[in-house]
Structures are given as C-alpha cells and as structure tokens.
Amino acid sequence: MAALSVFEYFLVLLAAILASNVINRFLPFLSVPIIQIVLGALITLLPLGFHFELEPDLFFVLFIAPLVFNSGKDLDKKTFWSVKGPILNFAFLLVFVTVISVGYFVHFIIPAIPLAAAFALIASLGPTDDVAVDSVVKRLKMPPRIMNILVGESLLNDVSGIINFQFALAAAVSGTFSWIAAGRQFLILGLGGILIGLAFTLIKLLLVRWLRSLGMENVTFHILIELLTPFLVYIISEKCGTSGVLAVFTAGVAHSFGKNKLNPETANLNIASENIWSMVSFTLDGLVFLILGTQLPGILITIIGSPYSISTGRVILVILLITALFMLIRFLWTFFTLRKKAYNEPENPLGKLKASLFISLSGARGTVTLASILSIPYILSNGTPFPERDLLILISTGVILCTLIVTTFILPSLLKKRPRPKTAKEKG
C-alpha cells in the first residue's frame, strides 16, 4: 500500500508539472517556477496517504548531476567565447565576492549561524535560475547581449556556486576551516574532477565507437548511455575524492564537442538527445519547485511557531535584507566592472544604469539553490545536530521566493513586450 502511495504521489507531481505549463499559457505574467511552487503547496492538501521525506544525500546525485551535465552539454561555445569576459566575471568573481561579503553579514546579524554555515547558505544562493528568466524573456524583449551574458552566467555559476557551497559545508560539518588548506584542496578537487570528467568522456567515446563497429546503432541504447553518464561520472568522482560537480560539467562540455558533428550516424541521435534532455531538464526543474511548494506550508507553520533562535519578524527582515544585498551587490558589480561594449548595441543603445538594473533584477534563484540547501546533513561529524539547519532552509526559501517575485513582476515593468505575431487574417 505504501508503494502505491509513493507511485500515486509521483504521478501527481508529474501531472502538476504538466499543469504548470498549461496554466502559464493562460497566465503568462506568472513565471512557471512560481506556478509550480503554488501547485506544490496545494498538493499537500490532497489525501494521498504519503508524506514526502527529503533525503539530503540524494539531492546532489538526483538533481544536481543531470542538471549540471545538461548545462555543460548545452554550452554555446561561440556565444560564450564572444562574451567570455563578462560571463567569467559574473559566474566566478561575483559569486565569490557575494559569498564572502553577505556570508559575514549573515553571521554578524545571526551569531547562532556559524560563519562556515553562513558561507554555505550564501554559496547555495549563488547560482541564478535561467528557467525563471526564460519565462519572462519569452514574452518580453531583453537586449540580446545582456541575455547572452545571463545565459552563460547561469550555466557556469551553477558550478562555482556548488563548489563554494561544498567547501563551506565541509568546513561547517567538520568544524575547522583554513584558507590555505581550502585553496590547496580546491586545486586538488578541481583538477581531479576535470581529469575524471575528461577520462570518462574518452572511455565513453571509445565504447560508443566499438559498439557502432558491431553494428549497434540503436538510438534508444545510445540515449540510455548518455542519460547514465552524469550519474556515473558524479558517483565515480566523489568516490575518488574529487569534485563530482566539475567532473559532470566537464563531461557535459566535452560531450557538446561531438554533438555538432553532422553525419548519418549521429543525426538521429542528436535530435533524440535534445528532445530527451529537454524533457529531463524541465521535469527535474519542475520537481524541485514542486518539492519547495510541498515544504512551504510546514515552513509557514514553523514561522508562526517561531522555533528559531530569532523572532519571526527578524527572520522576514533577514530574508528581505539578503535579497536586497544580492541585488545591490549585483547592480554595483555590473555598473563598475562591465564594459559598455559588452552590453551595448549600436542599433539599440543602452545606458550603463539601465543595463545594470536589468542584470541586477535578473538574478532569480531556483533549482540549484534549493537542491543544494536541502542537501545539508542533519548532524555534524561529532554527532551533534547541524546548527540552525531549518533556519538556513527557511532563509534560502524566502530569498528564492523574493527573487522570483522580483524577476516575474518588477523586471517586466522595465522591458518592452515582444510584438505579437500577426495572424494570417491580419497579414492579409
């Protein structure tokens, strides 16, 4: 009976993902993530006889691994190279500066949260969510060059944010932290992850060629190998003590070099691969936002009960302050570091102030943030409970909601609507 309840629950989640797309068609002013969060909250009202329990250890391998692999696989190398400077600037330097500055701020205003845990919280909030921005861009006109920067940033800051999060989390769990040791470990884990990602891709390439030499051109068979790749790469890399995230991203980027080769052997496979990964990515994104929605009623109840080290009012104030700080730092970083040629287009001139405002309001957080923060363990290495774990999840959830609201409702007020396509009757 329990197994049936789990299956029914999973079917309901899939139905909700489909429903979110339909609802967005009729309510385009609401982004898909917000719709999915609301649907997730409504699911908790259904008498399904099953309560979803989060498994922190599984979140990275189930959600992060395939999503990061898909990000690397979809990396548009030509577009990335044309704006590589701004993308690297936002995806790595901005994330690091934000983690340090806002992390110290969180620890200062809530001393009950250890500094390493505060860094982990802000690092989890580092990755921006392209799904939320895409839902706005579909109906509004975002300057193309700024959109290229935002897309490239969202692909790479998944990696930088997650790596920072894992380092901070390891320090929080062990209770010790050293900048020198962290830097040395970063190089070892990073280089090791990249090498494992490249090595696994090479092994996979040789295996696929051998299978093709045997006449095994079955598209379904090769798609299955591709779907298993991120999970295997992540698990092997982590078992070897290197960065699973970098390994998976490297494997995805390496995979992208082969998908553009057009020949009879790979044409059908590329088409099927794009369709399958589009479905997988949309489903995983939807599941994470739905899971957030299912946790929302319980979070609201705990806010009312205020079981945390600070009052309910202060929790809300901290969420708003962190959201404002993220946007302010993002605005100032854009204004002072982004060159005019990176965003300005001769045919459509754009001032630095407006460009900075566009980018600062386009920093919605989502899937990767939630999957990261929910992976925080319940206990430390010494057996004691992780300090303020529920509060960290609550703050992260609040910031996700605030940034989604900003991107969904405030950003559109600054952008022009896309012209509606003319119907055949209107053209006539």
What keyword list fits this structure?
disordered C terminus, mainly alpha, 18 helices, 428 residues
Summarize the structure.
The chain has 428 residues and is mainly α. 75% of the residues lie in helices and 1% in strands.
Fold and architecture overview:
The protein contains 18 helices and 2 strands. The chain has helices at 2-26, 32-43, 56-73, 77-82, 84-109, 115-124, 130-137, 144-174, 179-213, 219-239, 244-259, 267-305, 312-337, 340-343, 352-361, 367-373, 389-410, 424-427; strands spanning 140-141, 416-417. Helix content is 75%, strand content 1%. By secondary structure, the protein is mainly α. Strands 1-2 form a two-stranded antiparallel ribbon.
List the helices and strands and how they pair.
Layout: H1 2-26, H2 32-43, H3 56-73, H4 77-82, H5 84-109, H6 115-124, H7 130-137, E1 140-141, H8 144-174, H9 179-213, H10 219-239, H11 244-259, H12 267-305, H13 312-337, H14 340-343, H15 352-361, H16 367-373, H17 389-410, E2 416-417, H18 424-427
Antiparallel strand pairs: 1-2
Helix pairs in contact: 1-2, 1-12, 2-12, 3-10, 3-11, 3-12, 5-6, 5-8, 5-13, 6-8, 6-16, 6-17, 9-10, 9-11, 10-11, 10-12, 13-15, 13-17
Low-pLDDT runs of 5+ residues are: 421-428
Largest sheet: 2 strands, antiparallel
SS class? mainly alpha
The string of secondary-structure elements, in order, is HHHHHHHEHHHHHHHHHHEH
The whole-number mean of residue pLDDT values reads 81
